[in-house]
Amino acid sequence: MTQIRNIGFLFDLDGVLIDSEKEYSRMWAQVNREYPSGTDSLEVVIKGCTLDKILADHYPDCDMQEKVVSRLYELEKKMKYDYMPGAQRLLLALKDMNVPMALVTSSNEVKMAHLKEELPELRDMFDFVVTADLITKSKPDPEGYLLGAKKIDKDIRNCVVFEDSLQGVKAGQNSGAYVIGVAGTLPRDVLAPYADRVVDSMEEIDVVDLINLLGSR
Question: What is the tens place of the pLDDT at every residue in 164-208?
Fold first, then answer.
């Protein structure tokens, strides 16, 4: 197996590591009904975007933004989080092998605080966590993944990105990383043009094979 010190793993959160995409879609659909944005299927359009970008693009009025954020946080407090199939196993295997890992999420620190209450061990599995509060450009801009690679001191070309959203796989591709699209949130054929590989579940990932592949790029 290649020297693992040269490679890095970069993970999106929702729909990749935790099973939350359906719940977020339901929540944003409800918010859009209560506070109409004028955008049909808002919950689909915004996937992979930071909250700041969603508000700027769809709720430009400051008073409305306050109402939307308040309602969203109210709904988020009721959310329950669980791992996606194969996600915890993969993270633990990488941790045992001392493979550098970063979490790159469009979520902010308010969401991450609630996540820590539900899955207290998750954040500590990573060497660094990039949240929406640390970046200025939302996916598909690669800023978050480039920052994640920098923080774990790895060349982005030697990193793998795991993503489930269209904005996310585009961000991974734009960064220069090896991109694995995780189908479920979106069909395989939607992710495929922007990913080097598409899987139906993280259970399909063979850690040793993937590490060797990254080392040979």
Answer: 999 999 999 999 999 999 998 889 999 999 999 999 999 999 999
Tell me if 197 sits within 8 A of 188, measured CB to CB: no
Alpha-carbon gap, residue 16 to 122, rounded angstroms: 13
The answer to whether the beta carbons of residues 165 and 48 sit under 8 Å apart is yes
| DSSP string covering 130-178 | E-GGG-SS-TTSTHHHHHHHHHTT--GGGEEEEE-SHHHHHHHHHHT-E
Helix/strand/coil percent split, the chain, to 5: 50, 10, 35
Phi, psi of 14 (to 5 degrees): -70, 125
138 vs 24, more confident: 138
Nearest to 204 by CA among 173, 178, 185, 183: 183
Cβ neighbours for 68, distance < 8 A, ≥ 6 positions apart: 31, 35, 55, 59
Sign of CA dihedral 117, 119, 124, 127: negative
Query: Using an 8 Å Cβ cutoff, are 216 and 2 in contact?
Result: yes
**22-38 burial: b if 16+ Cβ within 10 Å, else e:** ebbbebbeebbeebebe
Between residues 49 and 133, which one has the greater pLDDT? 133
